[in-house]
Amino acid sequence: xxxxxxxxxxxxxxxxxxxxxxxxxxxxxxxxxxxxxxxxxxxxxxxxxxxxxxxxxxxxxxxxxxxxxxxxxxxxxxxxxxxxxxxxxxxxxxxxxxxxxxxxxxxxxxxxxxxxxxxxxxxxxxxxxxxxxxxxxxxxxxxxxxxxxxxxxxxxxxxxxxxxxxxxxxxxxxxxxxxxxxxxxxxxxxxxxxxxxxxxxxxxxxxxxxxxxxxxxxxxxxxxxxxxxxxxxxx
Amino acid sequence: xxxxxxxxxxxxxxxxxxxxxxxxxxxxxxxxxxxxxxxxxxxxxxxxxxxxxxxxxxxxxxxxxxxxxxxxxxxxxxxxxxxxxxxxxxxxxxxxxxxxxxxxxxxxxxxxxxxxxxxxxxxxxxxxxx
Lengths: 235, 130
Hints:
By secondary structure, chain A is of the alpha/beta class. Chain A has helices at residues 18-26, 45-50, 66-79, 99-107, 117-121, 129-146, 162-171, 178-187, 212-229, and strands spanning 5-11, 33-39, 55-60, 84-87, 112-116, 158-160, 192-196. Chain A is built from nine helices and seven strands.
């Protein structure tokens, strides 16, 4: 026991949400370090986060996107020797109660534990048709490529082992990195598990994926998953 | 009479294309000399401007090439080489841009992490002095 735990909170223009997210994490009663990565926000996300209790803030002076932000978190975790890293959104979508569940599974020896809203809700998840089709498609692609059904491959609520942290600090994909990271880790023989988590609907702001960028997302992610599958193993 | 005027026109276009190829060739060489283009990024430009120069001087080469690869209209063979040149150079640009954007990402991440460490150290020194 007594593993050191880092919560990586990527945040882009989340000045309105970030304080509540950090307070929530602090109230869990788990010994953990909160790292907010302010990914070049144009609002005062950094300042708000810095004023919070026991919170480390790293600010990118240019927006790198979610992949670059989370990777900075892995680099920080690697340099400061953390045993487990949790990726936790800065917009209040994730329910911090489930962090304990993710940590438990990571301590059982899994390298990546994915919090799945679909395991929690089953088929009752309400969403638009294109989004549900996209989700089904990603499930199919990951099943074909790695032989495991991942119900929620876009989930950004995840725990990573020390080994996975060290690997991803050097090799984390860029924009829309989550589905690609599953293939990447699986192909390099890391152990992956999904557990049910509750996710809230967004409090403020709106989803980054809509309209044209949905199509872009679809093709970019499919291509990335497919080609990641055909790259040589790195370990 | 008609034949003569065609010959004259062909000669003029030959001079123009030799001059054009030379201008591109010398421009690239000069830009490399002034260090405006790195040697490794000039190779494709130099290679293709040399090819254009060869085809401008040795006119039968284009006919030969067209016949060999089955193109009925020889100038089309020239356009094919031109398009290939542009494709290759643009693909090289995509490679360079990808590499640059990765280097930029790594640099920004490194700077951000270092800045955090510097702030920490500053605070430590400040607290020790107080």
